[in-house]
Specification:
single chain; 4 strands; globular
Length: 209
């Protein structure tokens, strides 16, 4: 069984939990509070020298970091991971886009404005850039979703999961999705997918502890 080191309110961690739920894959969940420095302990850094979550133990003492790499691993051989070479490349294209254009802006805004006490004041100098670049990414997504129900292969894939992680909490960090009706409709479609779980969901074993 996998062991997932995750932070409940982390969008990157949520991506992996959503994929595992969609696939009905059992796993052991270990909550890591990065705000309390729990990803910077010697024990955690021995597993992931980068000191970040999510982190997936795939075999004894074998660990995968980086949310999108983990998505590809857990979804291999399923309909969530396209096998057609072009569709696979398109999924990678959108997942690279997510990490380069969306997450550094919307993800950063979500972290500092929603998770860190006093974060708005601490990062006031960055807000305008986050909003400008985050909205630019949303416009790219909107243009694509005006013509497609999902991002790749006309079905729900890990590309959608990657982009959903932070887009669905955009309203919590000053982003207004009103100008992006296709994005909003896509968010609704993702939430209607069989096996969908919200960010605050926990596996039964974890919730019982």
């Amino acid at each position: 069984m996998y062991t997932l080191y995750s932070m409940q309110r982390s969008g990157n961690s949520y991506k992996v939990r959503l994929a595992l739920a969609k696939l009905a894959t059992p796993y052991r969940l270990v909550e890591i509070d990065i705000l309390q420095g729990e990803s910077r302990t010697p024990e955690f850094l021995a597993m992931n020298p980068n000191g970040r979550v999510p982190l997936l133990e795939v075999a004894p003492d074998r660990y995968l970091a980086e949310s999108n790499a983990i998505l590809w691993y857990v979804a291999r051989g399923t309909e969530l991971a396209p096998e057609d070479p072009i569709e696979r490349a398109e999924a990678l294209q959108w997942m690279f886009f997510e990490q380069n254009s969306l997450e550094p802006n919307m993800g950063a805004a979500y972290f500092w404005l929603s998770l860190v006490r006093g974060g708005r004041d601490l990062q006031a100098h960055s807000l305008d850039d986050w909003m400008e670049n985050g909205n630019r990414a949303l416009r790219v997504m909107e243009r694509h979703l005006e013509k497609s129900r999902f991002f790749v292969a006309d079905r729900f894939t890990i590309a959608d999961i990657a982009l959903y992680g932070y887009t669905h909490v955009a309203h919590l960090c000053d982003f207004d999705l009103t100008p992006f009706p296709a994005v909003k409709a896509w968010l609704d479609r993702v939430a209607e997918e069989p096996g969908y779980v919200p960010m605050d969901w926990q596996p039964a074993a974890m919730a019982a502890e």
